[in-house]
Design brief:
The chain is mostly helical. The protein is built from 17 helices and no strands.
């Protein structure tokens, strides 16, 4: 039952404040995935560790992010998006500070896990803030483009900043978050209060999700070092599979599931979930591989390697801004197909050209990959919000972003395993990119089922958010 209601009219000032606050949060959350990649060699030199340690520095964040998104999507709806978001900002700043002062690699991994957990509290709340601030479909599409631009630019600019900051001290890549969090807290009072819903918490679902994803990702990462025939790895994979099956069973039977399976009844929602998974799988994996490829295979310094990602960062910003008008004019189908086609071309070209060692070609392929995602992702986020039942925007956003973060965690785990053997880097890189390209082709085909050309009226009755 809803215990508070959304105001009928949202002030222009409050809407702008909500958009800026949500976009800054998405920027920070995404930045802390990609900013670490080019700093990994410096961290390894300072704190020690091997390839699996490097994977855990990345996947500790994405794993807890993915696992807790569903839980915190429920929390966001229950306590109100604004309250959840502010709490997440405070905790994210504290976790970032702990990362910056970590005395050992183990401490850093634990702090990264805490960062991921607090990011999971912020992300679904940020999407809900936009839905509340922009109830009209046309305005919301544009707002989502701006919001997604923050994430896309952070994802592409992260390696640039990571390369530059790690030249001085890798700890700066985490310390830089603290003043940004302080600025966000100063802006928060301008955002209107969010409504709350009273929904029981799904403890069984949360525990099973943690066991399933944790066991599978751990087995994938550590199996690369110990071998996948190791009894512990086989046991973890079996536990993960069993927990995943039980999780789905629980979600189908409990009265208030953390991941309502009814969300997947609508075909567009399924396409949106698959599209989010595909892009983040491709992008996180590409950034991970390209960072190592440029530094370890081509011998480029971190700061210079980071500049290779700069063109992608710039064009991704404009791609996100263009996605809203494209979706309003043509419906979500056209920009999603366009973005996925760009993704396929970029991934395939990077895989084919890996033996050539061309830095310019790496930069071009990253433009195609990141730019394609920047055009496709905002319309897919709009599909999620449009088909979310009233009062479940936080849950729907959390489910969507869970698929995205699981894609990122699996990419780093799987790609890391494929490139880990001695002398197998290039072959593993090509196989990894080919797998991502195949997913993008499948998503492109699925995207043809989305709504086609349509025009949303500028004036008139409010469009329904769900059927």
């Amino acid at each position: 039952m809803t215990t508070a209601t959304t105001p009928a009219r949202v002030s222009r000032r409050g809407s702008l404040a909500a958009l800026v606050l949500a976009s800054l949060g998405f920027f920070l959350i995404t930045l802390d995935v990609s900013i670490v990649n080019l700093a990994l060699p410096s961290i390894r030199q300072n704190l020690g560790g091997d390839i699996s340690t490097q994977q855990w520095i990345l996947d500790g964040y994405t794993l807890f992010f993915a696992v807790l998104l569903l839980c915190f999507g429920n929390v966001s709806d229950r306590v109100g998006a604004k309250r959840a978001y502010i709490t997440g900002i405070v905790l994210f700043g504290i976790a970032s500070l702990l990362c910056a002062v970590a005395p050992s690699v183990l401490t850093l991994i634990v702090a990264r896990c805490a960062q991921g957990a607090t990011a999971a509290l912020m992300l679904p709340a940020s999407m809900t803030l936009i839905r509340e601030a922009f109830p009209e479909a046309r305005d919301r599409a544009k707002a989502l483009g701006v919001w997604a631009a923050g994430g896309a630019v952070a994802s592409a600019a992260g390696p640039v900043l990571g390369g530059a900051l790690s030249t001085w001290d890798w700890r700066l890549i985490f310390a830089v978050n603290v003043p940004v969090c302080a600025a966000m807290l100063a802006l928060a009072p301008r955002v209107q209060r969010s409504p709350r819903t009273s929904v029981p918490f799904d403890w069984a679902g949360q525990i099973l999700a943690l066991i399933a994803l944790g066991s599978i990702v751990y087995a994938l990462i550590e199996g690369g070092a110990t071998g996948y025939d190791h009894p512990l790895i086989l046991a973890l994979l079996a536990v993960g599979a069993a927990a995943l099956g039980l999780f789905l069973l629980v979600q189908a039977r409990v009265a208030h599931p953390m991941m309502p399976l009814g969300l997947f009844h609508a075909g567009p929602m399924r396409v949106a979930m698959f599209g989010g998974f595909t892009f983040i799988y491709a992008w996180f994996g590409s950034v991970f591989l390209a960072s190592l490829y440029l530094q370890q295979h081509l011998g480029i310094a971190p700061a210079l390697a980071g500049l290779v990602f700069l063109p992608s960062a710039i064009l991704s910003f404009f791609g996100n801004l263009a996605s809203g008008p494209l979706a309003n004019r043509f419906g979500p189908r056209f920009p999603v197909i366009l973005g996925m086609a760009s993704l396929v071309v970029g991934l395939s070209t990077l895989a084919i050209s890996a033996h050539g060692g061309s830095v310019a070609l790496v930069a071009i392929t990253l433009i195609l990959i990141g730019g394609g995602g920047s055009v496709a992702m905002p319309p897919l986020a709009g599909v999620v919000l449009e088909h979310a039942p009233e009062g479940q925007a936080g849950v729907a956003s959390a489910v969507s972003n869970t698929f995205r973060q699981v894609g990122g965690a699996l990419a780093v785990a799987i790609f890391g395993v494929l490139i880990a053997p001695e002398g197998a880097f290039l072959a593993g890189m090509q196989i990894s990119l080919a797998s991502a390209a195949a997913l993008a082709v499948a998503c492109l085909i699925a995207s043809t089922t989305l709504a086609g050309s349509r025009r949303v009226p500028r004036q008139g009755p409010r469009l329904p958010l769900a059927e």
